[in-house]
Write a structure and sequence with these properties.
Layout (H helix, E strand, L loop, with lengths): L12 H15 L15 H10 L1 H5 L2 H17 L1 E5 L6 H15 L12 E5 L3 E3 L4 E3 L1 E4 L3 E5 H9 L7 H15 L10 H19 L14 H14 L1 H7 L1 H11 L3 H4 L9
Parallel strand pairs: 1-2, 2-6
Antiparallel strand pairs: 3-4, 5-6
Helix pairs in contact: 2-5, 4-5, 5-7, 7-9, 8-11, 9-10, 10-11
């Protein structure tokens, strides 16, 4: 979650109950897996990506086709629910789906199947549970919630290391990895362990007030550090690699892609 959210959310208190349900569903043969009919991207969505989505624009022709198919599958597999809007338009669907596929592009068959509903607010929204204003959140019940204003700002400025869509999708990715379903533990545990070891050192550095490539919020906890790292990985990859080559390399292994190489025409899986 972003700064206006609870700093300690994410894993895995709420997940325990969901793990129990998931196990029961597996035993009964009800995996809850999304069913996608992979098909070409609808033209309205393609136009939005071509106009607004820099990551997509930089891809090779072959990778664009793969990206488009997965964006359409994400749109088809999720329900987009307007909050303070009358409807969800093509731009919203295309760019939100794009942010999910941008993060998961290295995982060829990953659908984030635990998540099925995307709630979209116009601006910061008030939570009666936390009694705070939020920009976005990921809910263990399978919800991803976003403030459209803040989401758009994240993609309008491409190089500041702040991107709400990627931040919340990063939380969804880690949560999906821990949910016992058909996509359980798709991230290599060794890469997670290495990332968290390096993250701990960097978080202590930030907490001590030392200069860091990452903003202060990254030190809130290991999950926020991961989300902030994802933002910088895609928005400032060259600076990230220069600042901390080992951490950057670990991110490429963990996410199975390297934005620097990807935009140079390499396949999405670098190693």
């Amino acid at each position: 979650m972003e700064e206006k959210q609870f700093t300690d959310w994410l894993p895995f208190i709420a997940v325990v109950g969901w793990l129990t349900i998931a196990v029961a569903r597996q035993i009964m043969g009800l995996s809850g897996k999304k069913k996608h009919n992979f098909r070409p991207l609808e033209e309205d969505y393609r136009k939005e990506l071509e106009t607004h989505f820099l990551y997509y624009q930089k891809l090779t022709t072959d990778n664009k086709r793969k990206f488009e198919t997965r964006v359409q599958a994400f749109i088809d597999g999720n329900t987009f629910i307007p909050r303070s809007y009358t409807h969800v338009n093509a731009e919203m669907k295309a760019l939100i789906a794009g942010s999910a596929i941008q993060l998961t592009f290295g995982f060829e068959h990953l659908n984030l199947e635990h998540f099925s509903k995307i709630l979209i607010y116009k601006d910061d929204y008030y939570s009666t549970i936390t009694q705070k204003y939020h920009q976005g959140e990921v809910n263990a019940r399978g919800l991803i919630v976003l403030s459209w204003k803040n989401f758009v700002e994240g993609y309008e400025v491409h190089d500041d290391g702040r991107n709400l869509g990627l931040h919340e999708m990063a939380h969804a990715l880690r949560l999906e990895n821990a949910i016992y379903n058909d996509e359980y533990e798709f991230i290599d545990n060794a890469h997670i362990a290495k990332f968290e070891l390096l993250a701990e050192t960097e978080m202590k550095k930030i907490a001590a007030g030392e200069e860091s490539f990452f903003r202060k919020y990254a030190a809130a906890n290991k999950h926020e550090f991961f989300a902030v790292s994802v933002e910088n990985f895609f928005e400032r990859p060259e600076g990230f690699r220069e600042y901390h080559p080992e951490l950057y390399h670990t991110m490429t292994l963990l996410l199975k892609q390297d934005p620097i190489r990807l935009f140079q025409g390499y396949n999405s899986v670098p190693f």
